[in-house]
Amino acid sequence: EIAAFRKSIEARFGEDGAREIARATASNKPFEHSSVPKSEQARLGEAAKLYSAARSGEVASRQQAETERLAARESQSTRLKQ
């Protein structure tokens, strides 16, 4: 569901919009888009926060996997040297 949500936001606002959402959320500023009616801007802000959290979680997951991969590689390298 999270991946589908991220993809729908990215499809709706494009890559540039997705980056803009991430920047706005990181700087604690509201994300607004001209195609969204004023009455829906608050909901858009909530969606932007959720999108940013999902994106951050995915990045953290990738970094963790990379760290584990490097640790396993280092461990294997150490064993081979002995």
TrEMBL record:
<protein>
    <submittedName>
        <fullName>MobA/MobL protein</fullName>
    </submittedName>
</protein>
<feature type="region of interest" description="Disordered">
    <location>
        <begin position="55"/>
        <end position="82"/>
    </location>
</feature>
